[in-house]
């Protein structure tokens, strides 16, 4: 649904984007990741026409964005930036309803949508009448996300949205984005310089270097088969296998047998968590339980290794 | 040697003390033209001079007073102080138990009781000066010629001004809500208005002069306000488009600032005078203009000059405000799909408004002062009395013009302060 065809962009002598092409399917959670200056933010800002490419074109749902009025295009695309940029003279409710009001939705529809957004992004309704400066950084960015979602756009652009937050707030908002993506099936393009964040969130990772795509693939593909030395060094070689374990849930390697005595782990926990629990408890066998605490199977340490071997040779 | 804690109060109280000792309180002249004889207040009445001296002494002592609450943190660290209270902080404890002290609390910090004491002493001084002037004048007038002129001398004005400045200084130091400050100031003025209304000051020549010029005064006041109001509105209508048209840090901006800066540097009388010739020529060639009340002298050049003086502060403050809109806010607005116009109207201008209003504050106070000079080119206004008074060597007439100009400027300043703090409270 997003087709980027041979775009280039230079700022003076600096070539920010160099003949880059990319096709993203609808509903993808795509992270653009790479070192600073690799052109990832420039690429993101070209999708909503904040920056115009020197050459090449960008198609959204088959339409060249150059043919659209920029403000109308942008109202159909969610936009979240690192410094949040809430409007300090508006209440939180007014901030969230920015785009619906630009689109001149009737007030009833705005009120209804506000309730939905508050529920979806788990905002405390008490905040709505407050002003941005009364909220913490993490709370402000939650409002930033809510504002981007307010008019129900099918594409959301996020430019290092959580980079300035403290680790607990960041982890919390990352989980939130995963949940929102799973629920809404929106296409999300998410710029980050943090490979762990990229691996955690993405369905597709676009690893960029010097204005070009260094590798494109699922987190698993990138980890298991780095395309070149740059990718290898960027993902930080050493702990590849532990990271792979982190990407997979216990349920995928679970055996149906029951074990009553073993320590229990949730089916949706990662294999890395399972390994950690085994190391903590000093055991080789875990009981797997579902969300209600019902035991549904077991996981053996051999399953972890087998899983990795399987992928290593595949 | 005790430590000086408030230099302002020290200077004010010493100046006040010198004035009551050596300067003439009331000036007596047999008629309007004759030279008068002035007498210090202690020559006129021992009681009155004692009543004026007492609050001055209080202000002098307050200049050395330490903040009584400073003992508080020490008290908490020292458990013995709960059993044997120190004799010293008793005044503080009493003041704190007064409901006023608790209600007046500022941002987390209780109000300094010294400020309250200063307010009370200053208000007392103000009214002893006023009542002494009223009573003494009445006393002297009853025994003498009907044409006798009793005008207030430096021995009155200096302690009176000291009282006013001490009051305003204490209000500033209180750091409380400006609404409360304005209320306290209004409270100070209320008894004066009542006294004046019931003829308490009738024996003074200032009052007589005012009464005989009442109609002209009201007209001049109206004219003054019209000059200021009209020029501010026109200045805003010109300044806002300039502000929006200039790009920050551009060549055009530098040129505009330089041009407007040159106007600021031209003395007001010169600018008023300079406008007369071209305007007269213009009206001569286009007689149609005269039908709209435009002429080489009078209101037209006055308003033009006031507008020219107002432009630079307005444009510069407004542009500073626009430049201070955070870049991430601008970026977010653009990325969410605001058009340039929507962003300007809904984001940039509202955020720059406090800066623009503080520019308007400067310009208003400035225009109130400058409009008095406009009387020289026949524009009317309160300056008429000032220049008429100077011409006739009638100080009272000068004061009839000058006092309202000062009050208007102070009032406008206070009004804008209130507006600004109300705006800042929101964001």
Describe the protein in words.
- Chain A is 38% helix and 24% strand.
- Chain A is an alpha/beta fold and 314 residues long.
- Chain A folds into two domains: 2-239, P-loop containing nucleotide triphosphate hydrolases (Rossmann fold, 3-Layer(aba) Sandwich); 248-311, CBS domain Like, CATH 3.90.1280.
- In chain A, a hairpin with a 2-residue loop joins strand 1 and strand 2.
- Chain A is globular and about 65 Å long.
- Mean pLDDT of chain A is 89; it is low at 309-314.
- Chain B is an all-alpha fold.
- In chain B, strands 2-1-3 form a three-stranded antiparallel beta sheet.
- In chain B, strand 1 and strand 2 form a beta hairpin.
- Chain B is flat, with a radius of gyration of 27 Å.
- Residues 71-107 of chain B have low confidence and may be disordered.
- The chains are: A alpha/beta (314), B mainly alpha (427).
- The A-B interface holds A 45, 48, 50, 70-76, 79, 81, 83-89, 98-99, 102, 131, 133, 144, 147-148, 157 and B 326, 328-339, 342, 347, 350-351, 426-427.
Summarize the largest interface: chains and residue counts: A-B, 28 and 19 residues
Tell me the Rg of chain A in angstroms: 22 Å
Strands of the largest sheet of chain B, in order across it? 2-1-3
Write the H/E string of chain B, N to C.
HEEHHHHHHHEHHHHHHHHHHHH
Helix content of chain B: over 70%
Widest sheet: strand ordering of chain A: 6-7-8-3-9-10
Main β sheet profile of chain A: 6 strands, mixed
Strand content of chain B: under 5%
Distance between the termini of chain B: 47 Å
Question: What's the end-to-end separation of chain A, in Å?
Answer: 30 Å
Give start-end ranges of low-pLDDT stretches of chain A: 309-314
| Oligomeric state | heterodimer
Query: What is the helical fraction of chain A, as a range of percent?
Result: 25-40%
Mean pLDDT of chain A: 89
**Beta-strand residue percentage of chain A:** 15-25%
């Amino acid at each position: 649904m997003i087709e980027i065809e041979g775009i280039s962009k230079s700022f003076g002598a600096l070539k920010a984007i160099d003949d880059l092409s990319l096709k993203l399917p609808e509903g993808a959670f795509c992270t653009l990741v790479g070192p600073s200056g690799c052109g990832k933010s420039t690429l993101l800002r070209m999708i909503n026409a904040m920056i115009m490419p020197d050459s090449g074109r960008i198609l959204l749902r088959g339409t060249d964005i150059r043919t659209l009025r920029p403000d109308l295009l942008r109202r159909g695309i969610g936009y979240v930036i690192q410094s949040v940029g809430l409007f300090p003279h508006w209440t939180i409710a007014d901030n969230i309803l920015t785009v619906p009001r630009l689109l001149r939705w009737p007030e009833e529809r705005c009120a209804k949508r506000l309730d939905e957004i508050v529920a979806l992004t788990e905002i405390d309704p008490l905040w709505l009448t407050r002003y941005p400066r009364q909220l913490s950084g993490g709370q402000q960015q939650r409002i930033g996300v809510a504002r981007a979602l307010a008019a129900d756009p099918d594409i959301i652009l996020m430019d290092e949205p959580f980079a300035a937050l403290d680790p607990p707030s960041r982890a919390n908002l990352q989980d939130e984005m995963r949940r929102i993506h799973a629920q809404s099936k929106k296409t999300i393009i998410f710029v980050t310089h943090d490979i762990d964040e990229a691996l955690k969130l993405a369905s597709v990772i676009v690893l960029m270097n010097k204005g070009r795509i260094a590798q494109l693939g699922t987190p698993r593909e990138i980890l298991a088969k780095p395309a070149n030395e740059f990718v290898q060094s960027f993902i930080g070689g050493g702990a590849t296998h532990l990271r792979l374990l982190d990407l997979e849930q216990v349920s995928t390697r679970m055996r149906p047998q029951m074990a009553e005595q073993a320590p229990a782990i949730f089916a949706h926990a990662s294999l890395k968590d399972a390994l950690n629990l085994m190391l903590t408890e000093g055991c080789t066998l875990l009981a797997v339980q579902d969300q209600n605490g019902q035991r549904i199977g077991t996981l053996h340490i051999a399953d972890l290794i087998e899983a990795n071997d399987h992928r290593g040779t595949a | 040697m005790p430590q000086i804690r408030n230099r302002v109060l020290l200077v004010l109280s010493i100046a006040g003390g010198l004035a009551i000792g050596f300067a003439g309180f009331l000036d007596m002249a047999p008629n309007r033209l004759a030279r008068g004889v002035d007498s210090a207040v202690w020559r006129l009445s021992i009681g009155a001079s004692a009543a004026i001296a007492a609050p001055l002494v209080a202000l002098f002592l307050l200049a050395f007073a330490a903040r009584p609450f400073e003992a508080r943190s020490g008290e908490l660290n020292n458990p013995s102080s709960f059993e044997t209270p120190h004799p010293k902080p008793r005044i503080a404890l009493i003041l704190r138990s007064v409901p006023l002290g608790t209600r007046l609390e500022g941002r987390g910090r209780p109000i300094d009781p010294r400020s309250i004491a200063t307010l009370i002493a200053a208000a007392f001084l103000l009214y002893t000066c006023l009542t002494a002037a009223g009573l003494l004048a009445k006393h002297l007038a009853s025994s003498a010629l009907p044409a006798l002129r009793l005008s207030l001398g430096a021995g009155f004005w200096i302690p009176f001004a000291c009282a006013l400045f001490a009051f305003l200084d204490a209000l500033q130091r209180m750091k409380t809500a400006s609404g409360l400050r304005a209320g306290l100031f209004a409270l100070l003025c209320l008894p004066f208005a009542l006294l004046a209304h019931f003829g308490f000051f009738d024996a003074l020549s200032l009052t007589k002069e005012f009464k005989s010029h009442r109609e002209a005064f009201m007209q001049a006041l109206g004219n003054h306000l019209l000059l200021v109001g009209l020029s501010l509105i026109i200045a805003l209508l010109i300044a806002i488009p300039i502000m929006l048209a200039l790009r920050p840090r551009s060549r055009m901006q530098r040129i505009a600032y330089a041009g407007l800066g040159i106007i600021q540097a031209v003395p007001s009388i010169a600018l008023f005078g300079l406008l007369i010739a071209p305007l007269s020529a213009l009206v001569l060639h286009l007689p149609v203009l005269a039908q709209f009340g435009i002429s080489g002298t009078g209101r037209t050049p006055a308003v033009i000059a006031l507008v020219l003086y107002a432009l630079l502060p307005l444009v510069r403050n407004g542009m500073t405000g626009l430049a201070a809109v955070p870049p991430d806010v601008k970026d977010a607005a653009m990325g969410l799909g605001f058009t340039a116009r929507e962003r300007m109207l809904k984001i940039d201008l509202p955020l720059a408004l406090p800066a623009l209003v503080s520019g308007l504050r400067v310009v208003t106070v400035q225009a109130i002062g400058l409009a008095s000079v406009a009387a020289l080119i026949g524009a009317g206004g309160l300056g008429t009395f000032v220049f008429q008074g100077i011409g006739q060597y009638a100080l009272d007439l000068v004061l009839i013009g000058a006092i309202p100009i000062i009050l208007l400027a102070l009032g406008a300043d206070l009004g804008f302060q209130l507006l600004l703090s109300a705006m800042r409270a929101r964001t």
